[in-house]
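Need Asparagine synthetase [glutamine-hydrolyzing]'s 3D structure for a figure. Predict it.
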Amino acid sequence: MKSSPGFQQRREEEPEPVPVTSRLVPAACPAGAGGGSPFLVAVIHPSSDFTMCGIWALFGSDECLSVQCLSAMKIAHRGPDAFRFENVNGFTNCCFGFHRLAIVDQLYGMQPIRVKKFPYLWLCYNGEIYNFRQLKKQFGFEFQTLVDGEVILHLYSRGGIEQTASMLDGVFAFILLDTANRKVFLGRDTYGVRPLFKVLTEDGFLGVCSEAKGLMNLKHSMSSCPKVEPFLPGHYEVLDLKPSGKIASVEVVKFHSCKDEPLHAAYDTVENLPSGFELETVKSNIRILFENAVRKRLMSHRRIGSLLSGGLDSSLVAAVLLKLMKESNITYPLQTFAIGMEDSPDLLAARKVAAHIGSEHHEVIFNSEEGIQALEEVIFSLETYDITTVRASVGMYLVSKYIRKKTDSVVLFSGEGSDELAQGYIYFHKAPSPEESAEESERLLRELYLFDVLRADRTTAAHGLELRVPFLDHRFTSYYLSLPAELRIPKNGIEKYLLRESFQDSNLLPKEILWRPKEAFSDGITSVKKSWFSILQDYIDQQVDDLLLEKAAEKFPFNPPKTKEGYYYRQIFEKHYPGQSDWLPHYWMPRWIKATDPSARTLKHYKSTAQE
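Structure prediction for Asparagine synthetase [glutamine-hydrolyzing]:
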């Protein structure tokens, strides 16, 4: 890894922490609330009441729990601050595991959360509930802890699981146990920003985990390996808990669709917006709701930073974030982070944005060898073999590694979701009609948990960081999707035109950044001399011979790879997750064109500043 004095940052394998100032780039339940017995607790240090973490639970295990819990350690990266395992009183074959990244009190921040008012409820959750204070005030809930997730217990007691899931404004995956009624509930946020996987066998053994790797090697007395599956976003599941500790699924319910205004909007800090589709009204509402989406995500006692590629989405997030941090009297400066190879377009654009908004900017420079060397650990972290997801994850994985080792930023803002919501992909220029564009936008949002949201979560969580994505705010997305289809399509040859136009007069960003065309990731992060796309093709061409590719469909009958790059990624995936190829139902590919590769650079409309 190279560095240039005074500007570019060096990422080393095992660096000692150094003072922040030497790294900056100048730029203008309480345990005891019930009868559970923790059999392993290790608290590393206290921090705050908001957490990103790893959750894990077993019900009806036939094997020794102390052995099974070794699987939970495979997600320890999600919560490096503390961990805890606790078995359930009266159900000796059921237990919870929790890895905590604390984002006020080390006792109350631990999970499973239990409170004296509801001794029969056990909660493990991963995420942030942004409206917990409003709900607490609205319904007169008396909290025992400082934890945002405690609101889940109160909502459930007040109105049941459907109202609970629908009233949560945030990102979440949860496991809720009600021993009084012998029920288990699983739930996940609308876009799957927080991950959740489960395995349920025919004989009633249930395993639940933030990542699939924590369920892969569970022991259970059955002839075939139990099937691990992603839990669908925007759904909750009701399961019966039998006296034996075994589980039976009762129903899976979809509680929210991205187009529907969320139930919790009635208690939002932004109340009634002006109605109608007059352009100035629409643009004003977009600005108000987006600022609100960023503002509510400021809740953190750990340092906030922002990923910054220099594209529209991350630049807009960083600019609004810095503005609101100042208004909220957050005293430390915003750290922004860019990654690329020498002279990459993203680095140059991000540098311009950082100077404009006045952030403390960090650049991470990587070379082709470092990118290629990271591929296997990236695929292991991702739990997917999707081609474009793997390509785009390498840079995000490496910059997250740098942030964890060399800075004190823990909560990271990013621009995921904008391309899907605001029709930012190049192929939207080829849409047959505004209505088909709108349908495609909704499909992409429904599938985010398989692609960009998966990438964003795994690459940051792999290094104990928490990601926040304001473009996927429930209120913001439902409003944007309610707009007439013809308002949301590309215009004058420019994608995301309405979003750009909404911030045209805000002076948040330089005009050339606000109207910067979309860059293929492989071009954006790499040198003008050679793209990441080309580097990968050259390397993988030497690793996979033609004969292997010819027989790919025989070896991999489900989603057979059609390119050497796809074959190479699939081999690595199968090494770590054999027989789990259906976690990816299909590859990410552009529509309305004849495409053999997901990269934007293969589309005729695409113009890059990079040269081969």
